[in-house]
Structure formats: C-alpha cells, structure tokens
Amino acid sequence: MIDERAEDELEQAYLEPVEHRRIKRLRQQAWLVVVILQDSGMRPNEVFPMRIENIDWDQNRIWVPEGKTDNATRFVPMSDRMKTMLRGWCGSRKEGWVFPSSRSKSGHLTTIAKGFQAARGRAGLDKKLVPYSARHTYGTYTMEKSGNAFAVSKSMGHPDLKSMEPYQHQELEPLRIAINQRNQRKSLVKVLVKVWKTHRREQTARTCKCLIDWEKSGGRGRDRTYDQSIKSRMLYQLSYASFWFLLFSRRGDR
At what angle do helices 4-15 and 21-40 cross, to 10 degrees? Predict the structure, then answer.
C-alpha cells in the first residue's frame, strides 16, 4: 500500500526538474499511470492499453473493455485529479491510445517498472513498493471509507467477494472494537446489578431487624411522631426492596 507520505515523495521524484525532454515526458507518463492505478483501482495491464474514446468525460468514468477475468469488463471511477491530468495529457486528441509507444509492438505502453524503480530509489522508499501497490491502496482506502465490499469488488473487477479479503484487514479492527465495547458494557451492567442486589438485600435485612426491634420495644421511643415516621420509612423501603427483588427474580426465571 502507498501511504500519503510515500505518495508525496514518489510525486516529487517523478516530477523533479530535468533538462532532457524525453525523460521528463516519460516520468510524467509514469506518474500519471500510478495516479490512475491508485485512483481507479485498475490493473496495470488495464491502464497501459487505455483508449481515449473509452474515457467518459461527462460521467467521470472510464470503460475497461477487457481484462484478467470476465468481471474485468466494467466502468471505473475517474477522480477529479485523474480527469485534470488526463485532459492535460491527451490534449486535443479524441481517439487512440492514451499512452502510445512507437517502441512497442502493440503500439502502446507496456510497463513502467524501470522508471518506477528509479523514482522509488530517488525517493528512498522501500523496495517492496511496486506499481501494483497503488491498486491495493485504492482497494484498502475505498473499503475503509465506504464499507461497501460489493461496490469496491465490482469496480476492481474481482470475480467474487472472497477476493476482497486483502483489503478488509483495516475494516475488521473497528468491528472488533465495537464488539469489545458492547461486551464491556454488558459486563459493567452485570456488576452493577450484582452490587445493587447485594446492597438491597443488606438494606432489607437491616430494615427488618429495625422493625422487629421496634415492635419488641412496644413502639416506644423519644417521640411518638418521630417513631411513626421511622416506621413509615422502614415499611416503604421494605416494600420497595420487595418489588425489585420480585421483578429481578422473574426476569431470571425467563
């Protein structure tokens, strides 16, 4: 995957000033290929034979007429960056290869491997970074932001959703966190209920003891009104505790 830092360094390496006209043109071409790979999710062998007439400028999409699998025939999205760069690259041309090459038997570009290696070296990036990494970047980022595996899979020309597994690693972490949070809340509720039940049992026991002691003393106290208020409060606490005890007992039976 090409992260933002690596992308910026690659761009600087590709577009750094150079006097030789042909080298400058080749670097611009290679950088445009990398951008298309990363912004559309196309395979390199789908980008190289691109034709101008397959670019739908109005709908911001590109038609891929053939590819590695039966599902490769599809439309892919064209980002604003891609559109601007392709407009500048194609100029006034209305048809033909987007990346023509007089040195190729096919008539179009077939690789950017050597140029990519050189740019990667100038940028001081990991050798594991290859042009195909740009396609992986598209798959990973669009899955992370959209969560729509079907749409991403279709835009990348995958034969089935199983092929999306390499791009789902970042999507699994939020799901794991969500489940952990749910389990933590459940555990907390269980602890609180247990503490509450223990507290209510202890409080009920104390209330019953106070009532028994009060009855044994003949209901006498410092003041009859004061004693009555205490008795009323005790009876209320007892009835309240009994209500919740019965409620939770019934829930437990279910």
Answer: 160
User: What is the C-alpha separation between 55 and 59, in angstroms, rounded?
Assistant: 9
In order, the DSSP letters of the chain are ---HHHHHHHHHHHHS--S-HHHHHHHHHHHHHHHHHHHH---HHHHTT-BGGGEETTTTEEEE---SSGGG-EEEE--HHHHHHHHHHHTT--SSBSSB-TTSTTSB----HHHHHHHHHHHT--TT--THHHHHHHHHHHHHHH--HHHHHHHHT-SSGGGGGGG-HHHHHHHHHHHHHHHHHHHHHHHHHHHHHHHHHHHHHHHHHHHHHHHHTTT--S-HHHHHHHHHHHHHHHHHHHHHHHHHHHHHH-
- Write the pLDDT tens digit of every residue in 84-134: 999 999 999 999 999 999 999 999 999 999 999 999 999 999 999 999 999
Q: Which of the residue ranges 1-5, 7-11, 233-237 would you say has the lowest mean pLDDT? A: 233-237
In angstroms, the CA 3 to CA 29 distance is 21
| Distance in angstroms (rounded) separating the CA atoms of residues 30 and 112 | 6
What's residue 64's pLDDT? Answer: 93
pTM for the structure as a whole? 0.66
18: Cβ–Cβ under 8 A, 6 or more apart, which residues? 24, 27
**φ, ψ for residue 193, nearest 5 deg:** -65, -40
